[in-house]
Amino acid sequence: MEIGSVAPVSAEIEQETVERARRGDQRALADIYDWYLPRIYRYVLARVGNVVEAEDLTEDIFLRMLGAIGGYQMRNIPFSAWLFRIAHNHVVSYFRKSGARGVTGILDEGIADSGPDPATMVETRLTVEEVVRATRDLPEAQREVIALRFAVGLSVAETAQVLGKREGNVKALQHKAVARLQRALAAKPERWAAEGLG
Hints:
Elements: H1 11-22, H2 26-48, H3 51-68, H4 79-98, H5 118-135, H6 140-152, H7 156-163, H8 167-186, H9 188-195
Helix pairs in contact: 1-2, 2-3, 2-4, 2-6, 3-4, 4-7, 5-8, 6-8, 7-8
């Protein structure tokens, strides 16, 4: 799966495209896929930690979106929050079915958008792997917030909409998670050396 970076689109263009997609416009559906595939994939990869599973789950999420987009209504929920809610629910179902608790392995590829500089890509990959290792010890709610806020780049408000939480709760979860990650990453050389990971 080729995952690149796509420039964000304005809310007006997105809304107009979503309306066309709801009516079955194939070009509009392709645009939505192009806009959201990298972000959904990064979110899923951050949650499952396995490239093959992330690719499969991402495709499943877009199939679910295709089946449900006709019923999407703007109301007070942006399309991005609606789509990430589908992704969130699908990942939760995946973990329930598999009995897994979240990321348990090391990423096979970096989450960050690919860039032209291989040295930067390797450095980013190592950083992402360190963070993924550290996140496996976070409680589920904190891992979810970290994935949505930092792997995907959603705002606090968008993250709250996706998770069905208040913004204050998301901020508190993020604060606690970041504090725990800072402690874990500060202690990483000793801990991971003992685990044979560093």
